[in-house]
Amino acid sequence: MRSTRVVKPLIGISCCTKQFGIFGMPNHAASNTYVETTDQLLHGVPVLVPANGPTADIETLLERLDGIILTGSRSNVHPSYYDGPPHAEGTWEDMARDSTTLPLIRAAVARGVPVLAICRGFQELNVAMGGSLHQRLQDLPDRIDHSSPMVASREVRIGKAHAIRVTPGGWLHRLAGTTEIAVNSLHNQGVNKLAPGLRAEGVAPDGTIEAVQVLATAAGPVPGFAVGVQWHPENDWRTDIVSRRIFEDFAAAVQAYVADGRMNGISAAAD
């Protein structure tokens, strides 16, 4: 008898390297907010992608994953990846993550695996596709402080911090249905040079690019869904309609990718 069980999509969630415990043991970690969102909103199976750098088997990952969420993190993308100046002393770095996610992004975009990049992941997306970053927006003239409020209240930390202007006619405008939305803000780095092939979908009042869609690479138009947002929609999708729609749009892209892959598999088997 053929099983009627619905097979859920596998959603890769990028991890950071962090030290836990009294002995500082190295771990691969991702915030529970991404796992909960994948479980409860995307109805997928969360698969944590370790930050194992040069030993990461990118092709095997992409053969099995149906979508990828690139997570936020306290660490900054290492400036060697975009020819930037050295970080200020004390800046958190995670080159094991960088050397995993950057090639993963390029391969996923080329293959058409749906990608949703959030905060640090948004910055990784820009760097992976050939862009560069500002390291500390709050140190630049005429920029607002985009960093996380250092207060105990989670509601304050993830609360709306500023508005962004949404690009008319773009991906985000289709979801939001308006040309201005409010977002939270928990980052230091920001886009300096936008990568070729990326379109700005939203911009903060100080000119900082806050959302992008990948339209093309040097090889031509991208075959799938690849977007990024600088804020954290995983923190408020239960209460914010735009945050929820971002994940729902990603979920739709994942389902389309899975369906297309299954059809291709059926066709290949028939041949």
Description:
- This protein has 271 residues and is of the alpha/beta class.
- The chain has one domain (10-270): Rossmann fold.
- The protein has 7 helices and 15 strands.
- It has helices at 32-40, 58-64, 95-111, 120-128, 154-157, 171-176, 241-270, and strands spanning 10-14, 16-20, 25-29, 45-49, 67-70, 115-118, 133-134, 162-166, 180-183, 190-191, 198-203, 209-214, 216-217, 220-221, 226-229.
- Strands 4-1-5-6-15-12-11-8-9 form a 9-stranded mixed sheet, sandwiched between helices. The chain has a two-stranded antiparallel sheet with strand order 2-3.
- Helix 3 links the parallel strand 5 (67-70) and strand 6.
- The longest helix is centred in the last third of the chain and has 30 residues, at 241-270.
- It is globular.
- The protein starts with 9 loop residues before the first strand and ends with a helix.
Structural class: alpha/beta
How is the main sheet built? 9 strands, mixed
CATH top level class name: Alpha Beta
- Count of separate DSSP helical elements: 7
H/E element order: EEEHEHEHEHEHEHEEEEEEEH
CATH architecture: 3-Layer(aba) Sandwich
The best one-word shape is globular
Instruction: Write down how many β-strands occur, each being a DSSP E stretch of 2 or more residues.
Output: 15
Q: Unreliable stretches, pLDDT < 50, 5 or more residues?
A: 265-271
Write the layout of secondary structure elements.
Elements: E1 10-14, E2 16-20, E3 25-29, H1 32-40, E4 45-49, H2 58-64, E5 67-70, H3 95-111, E6 115-118, H4 120-128, E7 133-134, H5 154-157, E8 162-166, H6 171-176, E9 180-183, E10 190-191, E11 198-203, E12 209-214, E13 216-217, E14 220-221, E15 226-229, H7 241-270
Parallel strand pairs: 1-4, 1-5, 5-6, 6-15
Antiparallel strand pairs: 2-3, 7-10, 8-9, 8-11, 11-12, 12-15, 13-14
